[in-house]
Amino acid sequence: MKSIEALLKSKKTVFSVKELKLLWDISNPATLKSQITYLIKVGKLRRIKQSLYVLPDIPYDIYELANKVKTPSYISFETILYNASYIFQPNSGVMLASNNSLEIEVDGRILTYRKLKDEILFNKEGIVNKGNYSIASNERAVLDMIYLNKDFYFDNLNGLDFEKCFKMTEIYNSKTVTRQIHKLAKRYV
After folding, report:
1. Cα(139)–Cα(171) distance, rounded to whole angstroms?
2. Is residue 189 very low, low, confident or very high in pLDDT (cuts 50, 70, 90)?
3. Against a cut of 0.70, is the pTM above it?
4. Could you give the strand order of the β-sheet that contains 102-106, starting from the edge strand earlier in sequence?
5. How far is it, in rounded angstroms, from Cα 103 to Cα 14?
6. Which DSSP state fits 169?
7. Could you tell me the residue ranges of all domains in the chain?
8. DSSP code at position 74
């Protein structure tokens, strides 16, 4: 099927209706809806959430899904901190920074969005674009966490680049964030 081949070539694992329209070069909304409905019916496409689709036989990227469920957003907080071994308690879902707080269950996974002010959220310093999703650097995730919870306990910050943290504190325009990161640096440097 030509339409499925187009999806496979795209290197994406989660598709919005807008992306399907572009990938299939279909301008007529009725034709697009008909194509989506047909592919779902024959088991070649699966609706994962309203206006979001995946290929049923290919594992999708949970980070890509999380970024597409709510935009603007980027992966941060406990998700990054656990992956970097800065905290030892795993979190079953994905934690993201966004422009409002929200918790959503999609396909059995919990996606938690935490609100950051627009000046912080839209500042790209320390945010890495991975092609299909955006993710905070370790330093940015630590600062995001301190910004929302100044008393957050980190199990281990060995390996954190405190110089990068010091430079990024101006994003938050917060004396508390600056004070807390300096306090943590004294303990780990």
Report:
1. 12
2. confident
3. yes
4. 102-106, 109-115, 94-98, 73-75, 134-136, 127-129
5. 19
6. G
7. 2-60, 63-188
8. E
